[in-house]
Hints:
Elements: E1 12-15, H1 24-30, E2 34-37, H2 45-54, E3 58-63, E4 81-85, H3 100-113, E5 119-123, H4 130-137, E6 141-143, H5 146-150, H6 156-165
Parallel strand pairs: 1-2, 2-3, 3-4, 4-5, 5-6
Helix pairs in contact: 3-4
Amino acid sequence: KSLRKYTNLPFDVHLMIDPVQKYIKAYSDAGADIITFHPEATSDTSKTIQLIKNENKKVGISLKPKSKIDLIEKHLNEIDLVLVMSVEPGFGGQKFMPEVLDKTKTLRNIISKKNLKVDIEIDGGINFKNCTLAKQAGANILVSGSTIFKENKGDLKKNIAILRKN
């Protein structure tokens, strides 16, 4: 909430909490533009999607590395974003799990075949080398923490430019 007044950039909030429904309104009121949740954190994925839509926010669903696409495939026409976790959720600085690239490719193919406008975001261990692989697999949004803040002595602009270029 305190940051919202400083930018018009979209706030993409990843809620890895249970029960997620309890917090949707609070994050919406705080200024979130996209609210992403894990299907494992709700007893009713459709209801959670509708709660987010009722707040006039974009809807994202997150898949952990071992979560199957089947968990969300029937909801792809209702959402705006799929967040593919390329590390086990919990803490920063983990190593990218390349096995999620196949999941990303499969998702991109499903989304394309259904002619849907759904973004694919990858989060976890994204660096200057694997960012290209993530894009080639079909991701169009990359989340990078450690690389942006630690490489090149923390030169944020430079690090973001490198990620965009690669």
